Amino acid sequence: MRKEENRADTFILKGNICYSETAETVRTVPNAYLVCREGICQGVFEELPEEWRDFPLTDCGNALILPGLVDLHLHAPQYAFTGLGMDMELLEWLDTRTFPEEGKYGDMAYAEKAYGIFTEDLKNSATTRACIFATRHVPATILLMDMLEGSGLKTMVGKVNMDRNAPDYLCEESAEKSALDTRLWLKEVNGRYKNVRPILTPRFIPSCSDDLMKMLSEIRKEYDLPIQSHLSENKGEIAWVKELCPWSSFYGDAYEQFGMFGGNYPAVMAHCVHPTEEEIVLMRKNGVFAAHCPHSNTDLSSGVAPIRRYLDEGIHVGLGSDIAGGHVLSLFQVMVGAVQASKLRWRLEDDSQKPLTVDEVFYLGTKGGGAFFGQVGSFEKGYEFDAVIMDDSRLKTPRKLTLKERLERVVYLSDDRDVRGKYVAGRKIFAAI
């Protein structure tokens, strides 16, 4: 029997529902019902079962109801210079654009203004969950976490660790100081949030000394943390890692030697553009997630990641906007970039690896990346209830479209103006329906 006190936690959305069941299968159900109970999907129904008929229902009209999008990689402090410096490669771009900007986050007034803009734009997008890099600055990182908590989005945020190969104004003074600040940050945020979790964030191997990596590995075990970093993004970066870690067999092995490459805990590595065969094997063995960032990989001339190979190998893959190497926050546009990049790789590099489809990139942006957060990114029963309501009426056409075709046009043509509602773990973030 239903309890009256649970009514507010149970509700129904009615509309045109689309969600991934597998990487190859998108289910589309026109004029259907999506049931949420205590933040969990109870299923999609063409006819509303009797047991749910007394609960509140929101009719979204002709809008599309989609799972919330999951961004597995972005840098919040870089949002301020999105769209600038796109004519450089990675290492030059870090030195001339990224590091000077991130150095500003020791100024809390600047951090408050910049992170406020970022958080508001992320809240108004179709993204419901994200893995986010902050900077090395503890107060500004906590400020970002506070703001994201208030947004209602589910995020993982990391204080960045970097004790070498960075300008004096940004480089941490020692491995010991970096580890100490990380512990202070973790102590400060412990138990503070419902929506935000800390994630250990060594920037990448070139910016973290061996001593620091050893200390971070101990901290990871002590606090049972997930980890995020970068992997095999740029050929110059890969060669640099080999110089810094001559004892490693390949880039991923440098993380592995420190116990920082997944296995019995979640790990997400951004880019993964130029893996060795051994690296692919280790990623699959350790369950490492690859955050595919096609815009950044193109903008910074890094290359095209072998995503078809990863999918065929059973490697976990999601999408990342990689602000500000990537130039847009919209994960729909990242999906488009992933399709386009895969076509170029197929045509120019490896014609045995067929291009990605719209169905597949929609999966990567929802259920594929959502798996890093648990049962997230689908409307199948038992999944957390993350949903976005997309009004595609602005995208006019004289054609009579199927629901599947409308979804494809939303992927290719929509922007934040079309996001009319958003729910995260069953909680309404906003709704204009």
Brief synopsis:
InterPro entries: Amidohydro-rel, Metal-dep_hydrolase_composite, Metal_Hydrolase, Metallo-dep_hydrolases. The chain has helices spanning 90-102, 108-124, 138-151, 175-189, 210-223, 235-244, 251-257, 277-286, 294-299, 307-313, 331-348, 358-370, 403-413, and strands spanning 10-20, 26-37, 40-45, 57-67, 69-75, 127-133, 154-158, 160-161, 196-198, 201-202, 227-231, 267-271, 289-292, 316-319, 387-390, 419-424, 427-431.
Number of strands: 17
What overall geometry do the principal axes of the alpha carbons give?
A: globular
Helical fraction equals 25-40%
How far is the first residue's CA from the last residue's CA? 31 Å
**Over all CA atoms, what is the radius of gyration?**
21 Å
- Find the structural class using helix and strand composition: alpha/beta
Task: Give the SSE string.
Answer: EEEEEHHEHEEHEEHEHHEHEHHEHHEHEE
Largest sheet descriptor? 7 strands, mixed
DSSP strand content: 15-25%
Which residues sit in consecutive blocks of at least 5 with pLDDT less than 50?
A: 1-6
Average pLDDT works out at: 96
**Spatial sequence of strands, sheet with the most strands:** 3-2-1-4-15-16-17
Number of helices: 13
Overview of the molecule:
The protein has 433 residues and is an alpha/beta fold. Helix content is 36%, strand content 23%. The protein has a 7-stranded mixed β-sheet with strand order 3-2-1-4-15-16-17. Strands 5-6-7-9 form a 4-stranded parallel β-sheet. Strand 2 and strand 3 form a beta hairpin.
